[in-house]
From TrEMBL:
Residues 72-171 form the Aminoglycoside phosphotransferase domain. InterPro entries: Aminoglycoside_PTrfase, Kinase-like_dom_sf. It comes from Leptospira interrogans str. FPW1039. GO terms for molecular function: transferase activity. This is Phosphotransferase enzyme domain protein. Keywords: Transferase. Pfam families: APH.
Length: 203
């Protein structure tokens, strides 16, 4: 609240951080920094999680996975993506955008969509864990490599993928239909990978 900064006893040496928008008339109050999300306030004080801190949180939260290492895949854009390894297998950690800045429930949509598709044996990463508070999703890593040219076999596999979506849709009650319409959009935006002529996608 702006009134806190107006108190006579409020130290001029204290950094003034306001959650929300400044009004046009704030009187004699100076040097106020405004933020539109608590995450931005946190980052202004503590900075972004380092790779080591992310790994520390993971090993404490999901101890049973026996994680051994982490490396950055993509650290810019709306989401950040990391490869996380254990002695048995590897995973993809996706850190989703701040919900105060992007209110879309992307973690819930993508995680639940992959869960349904995986249950029907479609080529998507297996969902492993999710955390609503941190807005983190963990998926099974799929080995593959980027393709930099149009390949007809990938187009045909994509068509087959969408046909299977239509089959799945009939198995659910009407209240689930909207989710499956979103699946097509989600699938078309995944980065497709291929290995041994199989279509793989990595979130």
């Amino acid at each position: 609240m702006i009134e806190v900064f107006e108190e006579k006893e409020f130290s001029s040496l204290t950094k003034k951080i306001l959650f929300g928008k400044l009004e046009a008339d704030i009187g004699s109050i100076k040097n106020i920094i405004e933020f539109d999300s608590w995450r931005k306030i946190s980052l202004s004080i503590f900075s972004e999680f380092s790779l080591e801190e992310i790994f520390s949180v993971l090993t404490q939260k999901w101890k049973d996975l026996n994680l051994t290492g982490i490396k950055t895949i993509k650290a810019n854009g709306n989401s950040r993506v990391y490869r996380v390894d254990s002695n048995e297998q590897s995973y993809v950690l996706k850190i989703y955008p701040d919900l105060q800045l992007d209110p879309r429930k992307r973690l819930e949509t993508e995680y639940q969509s992959c869960l349904v598709l995986y249950q029907f044996n479609l080529a998507v990463p297996k969902p492993i864990r999710m955390d609503d508070v941190l807005n983190w999703g963990l998926y099974l890593w799929i080995e593959g490599k980027d393709t930099d040219e149009r390949q007809s076999n990938l187009i045909f596999q994509l068509i087959e993928f969408i046909q299977k979506l239509k089959e799945i849709k009939t198995k659910f009650q009407k209240r689930h239909l909207d989710m499956h319409l979103k699946l097509v959009y989600l699938v078309l935006n995944l980065n497709y990978r291929y290995k041994r002529d199989l279509l793989s996608c990595k979130i």
